[in-house]
């Protein structure tokens, strides 16, 4: 006979004589009104310190957990005055006199303490989701303050090969069996003697949530595993002993299209950049020729960059093949050893260009089996390649900037032409690739070289950090022009503003993300018209005197860089500004493509929400192929199939960096990995939790502490926390009431959001976009 869910205290009481896979600490249960009588029983626990927890009838139900809503006090000295004071505080935090108070000994020598879900609490996909604090804290996970969070995800229908995690999973499985419920939230702790303790169990609240329990077939994961194994074999002209895949390296799909993009966004990104264009550009700029190799793979809908291929693509084609192979394996080893660098591979792992600190940086290769001759040959190859990029008047990036300038004419010509919608979409994409993303990729490469050069000037002490900052502030980038235009935006110049910037949208590849000119008030309803004096003062401050220019001339010459100081500074400026300009221009065509696809859907009676699931190739094929079935039927068939596949994508859990076939079924995740709550997408102004006017805003808070519960009554649009995990009290409460949130984004990202006035929080795709 199945156990029934009762209160927190009663759940533990009924489990105590039954549970075999873990222990339950001795417990005393009293009611708020009887707390004085419980003193003897508490003291009889024989523990110097106890924990006193709320056990209200308003907690831990199948309708609402009220996680963290009532008080729990840890490390209370087991003596009368301390006990009575703590008992009073806990009792006063609960609404009813009949509510219970649970008292247990404080657990000592904790090695890990955390929370485990028997399924993903947002969509009930079949994964055990464990999150624990390895610092020894008993509350860091639930109160969201832990900075040593480790997460473990395991597909429930596969064998778990980690003994410690298997022990916790065995506890959850036993609890599932006892309660006859597959949707559990379990708090656990493990001590130095490897004893496991069950601290709490409650049902997950399922109300108004998508249920994807059945949508990750074991067969699909086995096929992915087989494909991953096959991809370990090097393709033609690709070096490196193993393949690694990541969502953040190189063209960074996690940031650009999100972790779970719908089919249209994913296929567009592949079509105009990662299938072919990326490799054409690198070949043109002197790197290995990898044409025909797709950079990005879709693993059941999640976009992954082939990191080995990316590493190959940063090797100068003039480099000896033996050194090339050695170098790629060094890169792979470095990333495997330091996986936290997966979003910084070009700055912290790869040598993709020459800068003024390269000779020194290359010396670390001596510790990895490279000799001085090999290092020197690599240095000369990088120098030769870099000179071809930065050369005055003949630099490769200058040709690409000229190419981009031709894009405007093609844009206008196609837009104004009488061509049918399908033809317009086809030719916009073709011109976007030829005169947009291909030269953009080149200018972006030059922009990276420029930033590397600029950073190296600081590294060698030629520039101070302040001088570097003043140079960057002197640039006239598109983003700075947009910021200026936004600050001075009013009714008079609104039309002119939209003519210039109206094509922009928060999600560049997402048809469901409206353009500025389609949803003006969503983006600009609270824009200040006053430019701050501080910004005026910063701009235009950069200047080198004659002595500095002469020293820079000498420095460049000594390093073999074939430009003068003036030419060098001009390159830095043009390349960094050009990268933004090129992106701005090609996104005009891409944005119009999305408009026309929306129009095409409207013509066939298909909503934008549905057409977002259509592959761009389904549309492009109609330009040169006529089928017996009409386009509407073909589109609807494809959309239905892709929608079903997208459910797998939503339910699937894979690591940010996929290094081993076993990680397809089980993986650990440490550090800052944002946990998105709900499947919703919102755009709103940003507020700090201390501000008075937070209604309808995305609130930024540092920790997912239950002390911030009051925010739920303030009608906020959503919230983002710096620290905390998917199993913190705030995460659970947000999940239950359907409030969009991103928990534990990390300090670097959080500081970026602090500087923003407006954000889009897209929980379904796993993206946070800064709008203002």
Automatic annotation (TrEMBL):
Family annotation (Gene3D superfamilies): ATP-grasp fold, A domain, ATP-grasp fold, B domain, Phosphohistidine domain
GO molecular function: ATP binding; transferase activity, transferring phosphorus-containing groups
Annotated SUPFAM superfamilies: Glutathione synthetase ATP-binding domain-like, Phosphohistidine domain
Domain PEP-utilising enzyme mobile positions: 695-766
Listed PANTHER family: PHOSPHOENOLPYRUVATE SYNTHASE-RELATED (PTHR43615), PPDK_N DOMAIN-CONTAINING PROTEIN (PTHR43615:SF1)
Protein name per its UniProtKB record: PEP-utilising enzyme mobile domain-containing protein
